[in-house]
Amino acid sequence: MEQQLEKALNEFASQPETVGVLLANRQGLCLGAKGQINPNVSGIGMAISEQVCKLEPNLNPPTICLYSGNKRCIIKKDGELTGVIYKQKPN
Amino acid sequence: MEYLRPVWNCLRTFCGCIHCSEDIGNQYNYEPSERTYLLADPAIHNSPALRQTNSENLSNEFAQSLPRKDENALCRLVQSTAMNMIDVGAMDLHNLENEEYNDRIKLYSQRLQQQWNSIQHPEKGSSGFLRDIPNANDQLCVMNSTDDLLQMSNFLREGHAALLNLRVDHNEAIVVPFRIP
């Protein structure tokens, strides 16, 4: 049933520097997570994307990048989906 | 200058003594400048007697009536007035030579620059949200990674496609598990 979703998650979680990916629905519930990412962050990621979209409501949803050291978190809302990707630079 | 002239006339009328005249002459010939104070002693200026002094009236009214003592007092009063006056006419800017004018511009510019350099400018340090991040420019260059944006776009597109193809497989079960291992 959800093989295609699993396949997509696995594919993106295995990309360079990527350590974890997550998809959340409009309610902030986790549709799927793969890699080193806590499924509980789905609600927070969705809330962040919702809030940032309010900055420019008439424009397309922006891509949010949070940086901390050699790690970064990329969040983007697209329709009813919110994607969260954790990436880490190799030392 | 116009104000000083009647005072001077009054002075010559009442002050017969050479000593007084010399003193006043010396004081009167001082070099006026923009730094010359109008009053060295505020008490003299605030005196109502001085404020009401009109030299023409003085010469007419007190020429015969003033005793010697009052005459000396008036002389001192007028003398102090003349000392404390500023000759505004002599300070006219049109009297400045062009060269002197330029010199003053340079001098004032230098003083201004010195004062400006001596001021502590609190905003001289780094400002902005990223002031606590060393080499923020390099960090920002790394941040604008198009690969990340492209990856996220592809990820969401694949996610949409996967959700569209999400179909419940009917296997005659009442409850269909979703992502439950």
Compute the number of helices of chain B: 9
| Helical coverage of chain A, percent range | 25-40%
Structural class of chain A: alpha+beta
Query: Can you count the beta strands of chain B?
Result: 0
Instruction: Specify the CATH architecture of chain A.
Output: 2-Layer Sandwich
The CATH superfamily name of chain A is: Dynein light chain 2a, cytoplasmic
Radius of gyration of chain B: 44 Å
Structure summary:
Chain B: GO terms for molecular function: guanyl-nucleotide exchange factor activity; molecular adaptor activity. Chain B: It is a lipid-anchor. Chain A has helices at residues 3-13, 41-53, and strands at residues 18-24, 30-35, 63-68, 71-78, 81-88.
Describe the structure.
- Chain A: InterPro entries: LAMTOR5.
- Chain A: It is found in: Cytoplasm; Lysosome.
- Chain A: One of its GO terms (molecular function) is guanyl-nucleotide exchange factor activity.
- The complex is a heterodimer of chains A (91) and B (181).
- With 91 residues, chain A is an alpha+beta fold.
- Chain A has one domain (2-88): Dynein light chain 2a, cytoplasmic (Beta-Lactamase, 2-Layer Sandwich).
- Chain A contains 2 helices and 5 strands.
- Chain A has helices at 3-13, 41-53, and strands at 18-24, 30-35, 63-68, 71-78, 81-88.
- By secondary structure, chain B is mainly α.
- Chain B has one domain.
- Chain B is built from 9 helices and no strands.
- Chain B has helices at 4-14, 18-28, 42-45, 48-51, 55-61, 68-84, 98-118, 136-143, 146-164.
- In chain B, α1 runs antiparallel to α6.
- The longest helix of chain B is centred in the middle third of the chain and has 21 residues, at 98-118.
- Chain A binds chain B through residues 1-2, 4-5, 7-8, 11-12, 15, 18, 21, 23, 31-32, 63, 65, 67, 72, 74, 76, 78-79, 81, 83, 85, 87, and chain B through 139, 143, 148-149, 151-156, 158-163, 165-169, 176, 178-179.
